[in-house]
Specification:
single chain, 436 residues, alpha+beta, BirA Bifunctional Protein, domain 2, five-stranded mixed β-sheet, 23 strands, EC 6.1.1.15
C-alpha cells in the first residue's frame, strides 16, 4: 500500500479519554474510531490486524477439529426462554422488537442458538462428537465500557461449542480446546496462562480463563513461575492422541484468579517461584454438561437405543480484545511493536527523498518484494514525520532509504522490536526481512 493514497490517518494529540496504552495507541495510530460508547469502527490499519488475529484463531480451531459456521447476530427471545436465560441475563442483553412486535435480541453469546441448530440434525451417538464454532460480533450492554476495544459493548468473539456422548468425551473436547488456546495465543507472541475460574452466567462446573499478564489488567492473578517459561509451540500435538503431557503441565502448577485464589496452596509454593500480577482475560472455556441440551430438548439415541442428552462445553476468545491485549504486551513510548504474525504490514519502506531517482528506484524494489504486505511511505513529508509514524504504527521492519545510501546502493534496515539498525544492500535487506 502506498501511504500517499492510503486512508491511514494518525493523531498527533493523545486522546484525553484513553486511559491505557493500547487504547491511546489504537486511536493515535488510526486503527479504530469510536462511534458511540463501547462501539468502534475498524479503520484499515486496525482491520488488517483484526483479520490476522482472526485467521490465527481460525487455523488453530480447524487444526483441533472444530468446524466453522456463521450464526446470526440477532436471535429470538423465545430461544432464550427455553434455557431460562432470557430473564436471568439482565440488563447486559440488548433487547429489540421487530415490526410485528416480536421480541428479539442482539446475541451476547450463542449456546441456545447452536443447541437449537444441532438439534435439527443430530439423531444418534454416531453424530457425536462435534465441535462447531463461529467468529461473530456480539453485543453486551456493559455498565462501564472502557479501555477501548478491551471492554467494548460490541465486540468480535470466537465461540465454539462441543457436543459429546458422555463425560469422558466432553473432557477430551475440553482438553483439545485447552491446547488449541495455548497454541493460538503463543502464535500471536502472547504468554497466556490458563487459570481456574468461576463459571459465571454461562453455567457449569469446570472452567478456565486464559489471561496474559499486563499492568493494566482488570484481574489480580497468582501463578507459579514455571508457567511463564513453557514453550507450547515446541511441543508436538496430536489432537486425537494423548494431550496429557501439555494439559497436565499446566493444570498441575498453581494458577488462579482472585476469586479462586487458595491461600494455603499459594503459600506452599517457594516464595521465589510465586508470581502475583495483573491479568487481561483473552479467552474463557467452560464445560457445562447437559445444561443446555437438557433444557432445550436436544437428545440423540445412544448405543443402547435410549435417548441421551449430549454433554456440552463452550469456548470463547475475545478476538477484538486480543488486538488491544497484544498492544498492551508490545509497545514502548514511541508506539506499537507488532509481533510479525499479526502486524498490519511486515515492512514499512521509508523513502526520505521522494522524487529522487535513486531513492525512488531502491524504495520501489523493496516495496515490490513484499507488497501487499508492505507499506510504502511515499509522501512528500519530512524524514522525522515518517520515522515517528512508522514507530507509532509499529511495523516489525523499517527500510530507510536516503539519497546518500541510495547512491551506494544501500538501505538502512531497522527492527522495531529492538531498535537495532544495519546498513545492507537491497538484496540482503530483502533476505533479512524474509528470514524474519
Ligand atoms: N459463550 C462463552 C464462551 S463461547 C462466553 O461467552 N464466554 S465469555 O463471556 O467469557 O466471553 C468470551 C471472551 O470474550 C472473553 O474471554 C473475552 O476475551 C471476550 N469478551 C467478553 N466480554 C467482552 C467485552 N465486553 N469486550 C471485549 N471482549 C469481551
Amino acid at each position: 500500500m502506498r501511504l500517499s493514497r492510503a486512508f491511514l490517518p494518525t493523531l498527533k494529540e493523545t486522546p484525553a479519554e484513553a486511559q491505557i496504552a493500547s487504547h491511546r495507541l489504537m486511536l493515535r495510530a488510526g486503527m479504530v474510531r469510536q462511534t458511540s460508547a463501547g462501539i468502534y469502527a475498524w479503520l484499515p490499519l486496525g482491520w488488517r490486524v483484526l483479520q490476522k488475529v482472526e485467521q490465527i484463531v481460525r487455523e488453530e480451531q480447524d487444526a483441533a477439529g472444530a468446524q466453522e459456521i456463521l450464526m446470526p447476530t440477532i436471535q429470538t427471545a423465545d430461544l432464550w426462554r427455553q434455557s431460562g436465560r432470557y430473564d436471568a441475563y439482565g440488563p447486559e442483553m440488548l433487547r429489540l422488537k421487530d415490526r410485528h412486535d416480536r421480541e428479539m435480541l442482539y446475541g451476547p453469546t450463542n449456546e441456545e442458538m447452536v443447541t437449537e441448530i444441532f438439534k435439527g440434525y443430530a439423531k444418534s451417538y454416531r453424530d457425536l462428537p462435534r465441535n462447531l464454532y463461529h467468529i461473530q460480533w456480539k453485543f453486551r450492554d456493559e455498565v462501564r465500557p472502557r479501555f477501548g476495544v478491551m471492554r467494548g459493548r460490541e465486540f468480535l468473539m470466537k465461540d465454539a461449542y462441543s457436543f459429546d456422548l458422555d463425560y469422558a468425551g466432553a473432557q477430551k473436547s475440553y482438553r483439545q480446546m485447552f491446547v488449541a488456546y495455548l497454541r493460538t495465543f503463543a502464535r500471536m507472541g502472547l504468554k497466556a496462562i490458563p487459570m481456574q475460574a468461576d463459571t459465571g452466567p454461562i453455567g457449569g462446573n469446570l472452567s478456565h480463563e486464559f489471561l496474559i499478564l499486563a499492568e493494566t489488567g482488570e484481574s489480580q492473578v497468582f501463578l507459579h513461575k514455571d508457567l511463564l517459561d513453557f514453550d507450547v509451540l515446541s511441543q508436538p500435538v496430536d489432537y486425537d492422541g494423548d494431550l496429557s503431557p501439555i494439559v497436565d503441565f499446566w493444570t498441575s502448577r498453581y494458577a488462579a484468579t482472585d476469586e479462586k485464589h487458595d491461600l494455603a496452596a499459594w503459600e506452599a509454593i517457594p516464595e521465589a517461584q510465586r508470581v502475583s500480577a495483573r491479568g487481561i482475560e483473552i479467552g474463557h472455556i467452560f464445560y457445562f454438561g447437559t445444561k443446555y441440551s437438557a433444557s432445550m430438548g436436544l437428545t440423540v439415541s445412544g448405543p443402547d437405543g435410549k435417548p441421551v442428552a449430549p454433554e456440552m462445553g463452550s469456548y470463547g476468545i475475545g478476538v477484538s480484545r486480543l488486538v488491544g491485549a497484544i498492544i498492551e504486551a508490545n509497545h514502548d513510548e514511541n508506539g506499537i511493536r507488532w509481533p510479525e504474525a499479526v502486524a498490519p504490514f511486515k515492512l514499512a519502506v521509508l523513502n526520505l527523498k521522494q522524487g529522487d531517482a535513486g531513492t525512488d528506484a531502491l524504495a520501489g524494489r523493496l516495496y515490490e518484494a513484499f507488497a501487499p504486505d508492505a507499506l510504502y511511505d511515499d509522501r512528500e513529508e519530512r524524514a522525522g514525520v515518517k520515522f515517528a509514524d512508522a514507530d507509532l504504527m509499529g511495523y516489525p521492519w523499517q527500510a530507510i532509504i536516503g539519497p546518500r545510501g541510495a547512491a551506494a546502493g544501500k538501505v538502512e534496515l531497522k527492527r522495531r522490536a529492538t531498535g537495532e539498525r544495519v546498513e545492507l544492500s537491497v538484496e540482503d535487506a530483502i533476505a533479512r526481512v524474509k528470514a524474519g
